[in-house]
Amino acid sequence: MKKYLMTGIAAVALCAAFTSCSHEEGFSTLEEAKTAQYEAAFIEAFGKPASNQDWGFGTSSRTRTADTNGNEWGYTYKNVPDPLTTDQLRVVREWFQANRNPNGVSIDYSDFFVQHVYVGGTNVGPNSTEHYTCANGDDIVGGEKMNKLVCGPVLQSNGSMGPDHINNGNASNISVNYNVTDGRHYKDGWVRESGENEQPTLEDYHNMKQHSDQIQHMVNSSTKYFGYENSLQNSNLYNDRFVIIPGTEIDPSNTYGLHGKYFVGFDYDADVAHGYVSETNTNMYLKSTAAEGGRDYYYSDWIICVTPGLKWGDYTDEIKYSGRIFCEDLGSVGDFDFNDVVIDVYIYQSGKIEIDVVAAGGRLPISVAGVAVDLGQMMNTGVNSTSRVQHIIIPAETATANGWTTLKSIPIMVSQNNPANVVETYELSANVGQVPQKICVPLNTKWADEYIRLEKAYPDFKNYVSNPETDWTTNVVGRFVDYDLNNNN
Questions:
Q1: What are the DSSP E strand ranges found in 317-470?
Q2: How crowded is residue 451: how many other Cβ atoms within 10 Å of its Cβ?
Q3: 8 A C-beta contact, residue 178 and residue 212
Q4: Sign of torsion, CA 270 272 278 282?
Q5: Per-residue pLDDT, 157
Q6: Which residues contact 256 (CB under 8 A, 6 or more apart)?
Q7: Least confident segment among 58-62, 148-152, 357-361
Q8: How far apart are CA 410 and CA 404, in angstroms?
Q9: CA 479 → CA 45, 430, 458, distances in Å?
Q10: Which terminus has fewer CB within 10 Å in the chain: N or C?
Q11: Among 323, 320, 321, which Cα is nearest to 56's?
C-alpha cells in the first residue's frame, strides 16, 4: 500500500494526534493501524496467503473470460450479430455437408462472438450420415458425443497454454442467452442508422431492446484453434478436427449476408491416440476408414459462427487485458464482502483504458485512476440500487505517462479522516503473497451482497487463499450474490 504523507503543520498536527493512540501501538498513521488490523483479521478468517498468491493480477487465466452479460453488449459493441436466419443456417449447413475435407483459413481474434449453427444428425445431407461406427460395431451420432466447446490456446493458471471453455457451449449446443442487446434496436422501435459509430449514451443503453440467441461473447481469448471434449473417451480434447471457412466463400455475392462472419465446422473423430485408450476398449474408438464408419472428413458434425467483436468508435484497437476488481476500503475492518467498490477494467493494445464502476458498497470517498467514484454510497449491493454504470475513459497517453499498463497498476485510492480529523489518502494493494485489499476476477463474476463475507458467497475462496490454483469463482451460492438482502438469513 502506498502512503501519501503530509508535510508542514498538517503533519505536526497528525503526529501529535497519534501520540495518545496509534503511536503507542507502533503505528505512525491511521492507515498503518488499519492495515495491521485488517491483515490480522483476514489471516484469522482465511489463513495465511500462499507465497505465490497473486490475487488474479498475474499472468493467469483469471483475467480472461466468457462475457455472459448479453444485456451490456450493445452498449460496448457496435456489431453484436443478429440471430442467424433460417436461410443462413440452411446455406451454411448445406455447404459443409457438400464439401469434403475443404481448405480453411486461420484467424486470430481475442474478442469475438460465437453462435450455434447446426449439430450433426438432425438434418443430414446426401454425403454423410453423420453417424459413425465404433470398433465393436456400436452406432453413434458424432454430434451427440461432442461436449464442452473450447477455443485457444490461452495462458492457464499454471503457466502452460491450453483451451478456453466457451461458457455455454456444451453437448454440441450453445445455450440461449435471453437478454442480448445489439446497440442498434430500441424499445420504442427506433433503429440506429447503419454506419453510425458513436457509442450509445447511458439513456440509450437503458432503452435498448433485448432479444434471445444461442450466442456467447469471448474476451481475451483466442481463435487459433477450436475443439471439443469427446464424451465417448472420458472428455479427451480434440482440437485438430476443425476447419474455418469465411462467409465470403460460402456466400460470394453476400446474398444471405454472410460476409464478415467465419464458420467453424467440426468433423467427429474418436481414435486411440487422442483418447489414450487401449485397442482392447473397442467401444471407445471408431473404425479406421470412412467406408467402415470411421471419420469421414465432412465437417458438419457441429457448426458454429464466429464474428470478431468491434467496439463503438473502435476499428482496430483490441482488448489486451480485462478483469473485474473487488475491493475492500478498510473502512469497516472484518466484513470482507469485497464490494466497497467493484470495477470492470479493459486495457487496449493502444494503451487506452476503459473502466466501468458497477457497484459501490462502501461509504468512504474512492477514486479510480484519478476519477472520483460518484455512483453513490452502498450502491448495487442490496441496500441501494441504480441501473447506471459510471464509465471512465483514460486516454492512452495519460495511461502510459502514469505507468498504468496492467490491471494491478490502475490506482484505486481511498480517503478517510484520522482521529485528528485530517484526511489520509492511500492506495489499495494486492501484493503477491500478502493479504489483499483488491482481488481480480473474471468479468462475469458476481460480487457479494452487502454484509455477506466473500467465502459465504464463494465457499472455495478460503481454499483459494492458500492454493492459487483453486477455481473459486465457479462455485457460488446464488442467493448471496443476487443483491437482495431479504433472503440472506
A1: 319-327, 341-348, 353-359, 366-368, 371-372, 390-394, 412-417, 423-427, 438-441
A2: 16
A3: yes
A4: positive
A5: 67
A6: 85, 87, 88, 91
A7: 58-62
A8: 5
A9: 22, 28, 11
A10: C
A11: 323
Render 224-267 in DSSP notation, one character per residue: SEEEEEEGGGTTEEE-SSEEEEEHHHHSTT-TTS-TT-EEEEE-
Question: How far is 80 from 184, CA to CA, in rounded Å?
Answer: 9
Instruction: Give yes or no for residue 150 having a pLDDT over 90.
Output: yes
Q: Residue 194 has what pLDDT?
A: 73
Residue 489, judged by CB atoms within 10 A of its CB (0-12, 13-18, 19+), counts as: exposed
- Residue 290, pLDDT > 60, answer yes
What is the distance between the alpha carbons of residues 195 and 17, in angstroms, rounded to a whole number? 62
- Residue 202, Cβ density class (10 Å: 0-12 exposed, 13-18 middle, ≥19 buried): middle
Asked whether 414 and 366 are in contact (CB, 8 A), the reply is: yes
Contact predicate 448/456, CB 8 Å: yes
12 Cβ contact list (under 8 Å, min separation 6): none
Q: What's the pLDDT score for residue 373?
A: 93
What is the grid cell recorded at 231? 464424451
C-alpha cell at 400: 502510459
Beta-bridged to residue 228, according to DSSP, are 238
Mean pLDDT value of segment 30-57: 91
Q: Whose CA is closest to 378, among 361, 359, 364, 390?
A: 361
- Return all residues near 42 (Cβ < 8 A) that are at least 6 apart: 336, 435
Going by pLDDT thresholds of 50, 70 and 90, the confidence category of residue 202 is low
Cell of 108: 486470430
245 burial level (CB within 10 Å; 0-12, 13-18, 19+) = buried
Hey, what's the torsion of the CAs at 175, 60, 275, 97, to 10 degrees?
A: 40
The residue ranges of DSSP E strands in 29-168, in sequence order, are: 65-67, 112-119, 131-133, 139-141, 146-155, 161-165
Look at residue 17 and tell me whether its pLDDT is greater than 70. Answer: no
